[in-house]
Amino acid sequence: MPVGTKTKKDIRSLCKEDLRTFFTEQGQRAFRGNQVYEWLWKKACYSFDDMTNISKETRELLADNFVINNIEVDKMQRSEDGTIKNAVRLHDGLIVESVLIPTDTRTTACVSSQVGCSLDCNFCATARLKRMRNLNADEIYDQVVAIDRQSRLYHNKALSNIVFMGMGEPLLNYKNVLAAIEKITTEEGLNMSPKRITLSTVGIPKMIKKLTDDGVRFNLAVSLHSAIDAVRSKMMPINEKSDLNELLEALQYWYAKTKKKITFEYVVWKNINDTRKDADALVAYCKRVPSKVNLIEYNAIDDGYFQQADVAAVAMYKTILEKNSIGITVRHSRGKDIDAACGQLANKS
Ligand code: SAH
């Protein structure tokens, strides 16, 4: 078929073996496939022309047959506190957001897994965007590469951690998220330790069991926000499909096999979950599976139905959790001035 009339394939959808086969079919050495694979992943090269150890003819052959659908950072915003938010343009023009969060000891990338989200948690800005599509593995990988480069440039250190807490529900894009993590953690990719990666989910029991069965080695965080079904269902419709008991059972299954504590993410809201009864329910839940709690500050996104609870309520939670020897961290928002904080990602920039 003459060049130009066919739809070119995204070269990064090919595995290494596919690339090797491509070259042998072209009468070249399979080893070329390894070289190109290294350019594509380890070196995160987005242009065939830049693949300098490949001959010009071979680079043209690649360009005639394939495209590289890399992401582009469309707009970068820097917060007063060093947080960077990227509006990332995908090859089809859609936009997602990803964030770099620096602290004294680490830099963390918060990446998106879907364009928009289908889950309708009613405190989250991303829920207002309808789910458009899943990200491909390479689009997730590229966000990490972009943030690693920014981390080196602006903070003089390599990226140290990754959290899947950007837009979308990672467990509803299971295959691509796991493929991305595989690439991020392999020596042929970014060679990062899975211990430094955390996947945050609304809590889909069936998929948590699948993660367990698949033997993943990264960390799991669950957006709990309430350990009382009636309260949780009101703000997170997913809880009506699978309640707290079902979730707990999946989490116990996870712990039994991985021996990894679960992190519960939890926002305390005024008049919603700020009473002693709410805190006691959380303690009781945490006691049933090895876990720790991240109390996250609420980032207001709406008309005021949800409001951050008083300092006293957060302190009450902290005291009760500590008394019961449950690990607790109180997290303050970062990058609020640029709408980069949890739940604020909504393509506003
Ligand atoms: N879908 C995944 C990951 C995206 S949300 C999940 O639900 O975990 C990342 C975290 O931000 C979740 O814990 C979510 O509950 C929390 N979050 C959402 N909106 C928020 C807001 N307005 N303020 C603070 N945290 C919020």
Brief overview:
This protein is of the alpha/beta class and 349 residues long.
- Strand coverage percent: 15-25%
Return the average pLDDT rounded to an integer.
94
- Give the count of helical stretches: 11
Structural class: alpha/beta
Q: How much helix is in the residues?
A: 25-40%
Strand order of the largest sheet: 3-4-5-6-9-10-11-12-13-14
Number of strands: 14
Largest sheet: 10 strands, mixed
Distance between the termini: 43 Å
Element-by-element helix/strand order? EHHHEEEEEEEHEHEHEHHHEHEHE
Radius of gyration: 22 Å
Low-confidence stretches: none
Describe this structure as you would to a colleague.
There is one protein chain. 35% of the residues lie in helices and 18% in strands. The chain has helices spanning 16-25, 31-40, 56-65, 137-155, 174-185, 205-213, 229-235, 238-241, 244-258, 276-287, 311-323, and strands at 9-10, 66-67, 72-78, 84-89, 95-102, 107-110, 114-115, 133-134, 161-164, 197-201, 219-223, 262-267, 291-296, 327-331. The chain starts with 8 loop residues before the first strand and ends in an 18-residue tail after the last strand. Helix 1 (16-25) packs across helix 2. It is elongated and about 70 Å long. The protein has a 10-stranded mixed beta sheet with strand order 3-4-5-6-9-10-11-12-13-14, covered by helices on one side. Strands 1-2 form a two-stranded parallel ribbon. With 349 residues, it is an alpha/beta fold. The longest helix has 19 residues, at 137-155. Bound molecules: S-adenosyl-L-homocysteine.
